[in-house]
Amino acid sequence: MRILKKEKENAKKKLNKVKAAFKSDKINALNQALHEDKESSPENEITVPKIKAAKKEKTNREIMLVTYIFAGLFVLVLGYFVNFMVTQSSEVINNAYNQRQDLLAEQIVRGDIISSDGQILAHTVTDKKGKEKRVYPFGSMFAHVVGRFSKGKTGIEASENFHLLTSNNNEISKILRELSGEKNIGDNVVTTIDSRLQKAAYEALGDNKGAVVVTEPSSGKILAMVSKPDYDPNNINVLWEDLLKDSDNDSALINRATQGLYPPGSTFKILTALEYMKENPDYEDYTYDCTGKGKFNSVTINCYNNKVHGKEDLKESFAKSCNASFANIGITLDVASFHKLCERFLFNEPLPTNLAYNQSSYVLTSKSPKSEIPQTVIGQGKTQITPLHNALIASTIANGGVMMKPYVVDHIENQGGTVIKKYMPEIYDTLITPDEAQIMTSFMREVVKSGTGSALNNKSYTVAGKTGSAEYVENKPAHAWFVGFAPAEKPEIAVSIIVESVGTGSEYAVPIASKIFKTYFNNK
Q1: Radius of gyration, CA atoms only, the chain
Q2: What's the rounded Cα separation, in Å, for the pair 370 and 85?
């Protein structure tokens, strides 16, 4: 037994020696690998304490890295939360699907919508039983731009719903009303709409289908917006079923000013002329002998009523709205470059507005059949545009090549008249140079002086513009267009007008522009 015990102890000692040797060899091997070609010294020799220290340092670095990551994520979340509260919360609350609106409506009487000249366009009345009713004093005149409250909010009633249901009145008065069981009064929305211009545009459009947009080119303010056919929002509950059935194909619920898509007709020649000038610095040398029609890329293009314009330069071709001359110009253009110019002017692109709108389209590319070019460059073919978009193009020319973002709300104020939020003009982009804008203004001025817009000449103010007659269905009258601005030297007001299926722009759209300009300058 003693012998076995002794042998066991000897074996254990040998095993410990082997382990120690193995451990020592491992450390030496590490030292040799890390310090190859260097003399071994006590300073650089890896020892067990150093290995433990290295492991601890690595662990600390990992902990710090995780700490920094979580700190960074916290800062990002905090930044998003602050940004949401400052800039996005009102939009989320204003969403039609947000039930918080119903809670606000239980506590707040909806504020007023007011024109820039102080007219109440929408307000809430409460009867003796406490029942609230939204009232529109001007009936159908502001139906599309102001919108409606019942049967789904639209227009300003929708876009400014949050502000209308928010009260920023004096805190003491708010508490007193709450204690007495009364609702607080919501803030008022003061628009950029001038009721006098709105009335002039509304009456001038008469019983025709169409739309009118009036803007201030230097700021982007929308001064008037009319769409017909329309409806009386005071009677929306009674009219609703008939409006949905639309048996007369009136589409009265659609705001044609922002959602109606039409071929631009000859108003599109503004862009065609701009592209030609960009590609041809010697554009002033251009001449064309118009015989009333011509064949271009195997397509016959007729001037209106086959009128013979004779020999003309580029400015005269523009002023007389000569289709043959512009088709002749169009087939020489770089199609890809023209496509880029059109997209720069927001075809196929979102418009910088929170109004409900349809996007304009321009489909001609370098891959399109050449037979599509002659029709496209004169504003026919597959091109589609809204009156609001056409107003932006005209306003850009008027504003020296700078497009402003259009807006329809000037400011928010509480019931005491204190301004809570003020909306300021914003530049969208500079689309052309001031020189190009000035040349195009001179072209549009010639339209009024000697061309198709001559009914606007010899006024106490100067007008620059472009007429258009957009054919859309065979054997039916064309849509009548006019876009323009005044005074031509220093524009203060721009218009975009379309009258559906009546004939020429000079005969039907120009007289509407004349009445709007007259109202504006008479009320200055």
Answers
A1: 36
A2: 53
Spatial CB neighbours of 148, under 8 Å, sequence gap ≥ 6: 134, 136, 154, 155, 157, 233, 236
pLDDT tens for each residue of the chain, 524 residues long: 454 455 556 555 655 654 554 455 544 554 554 455 444 444 545 566 666 666 667 677 778 778 878 788 788 777 765 665 555 555 555 555 455 555 666 789 999 999 999 999 999 999 888 899 999 999 999 999 999 999 999 999 999 999 999 999 888 878 877 777 788 999 999 999 999 999 999 999 999 999 999 999 999 999 999 999 999 999 999 999 999 999 999 999 999 999 999 999 999 999 999 999 999 999 999 999 999 999 999 999 999 899 999 999 999 999 999 999 999 999 999 999 999 999 999 999 999 999 999 999 999 999 999 999 999 999 999 999 999 999 999 999 999 999 999 999 999 999 999 999 999 999 999 999 999 999 999 999 999 999 999 999 999 999 999 999 999 988 899 999 999 999 999 999 999 999 999 999 999 999 999 999 999 999 87
Whole-prediction pTM: 0.82
φ and ψ at 383, to 5 degrees? -70, 135
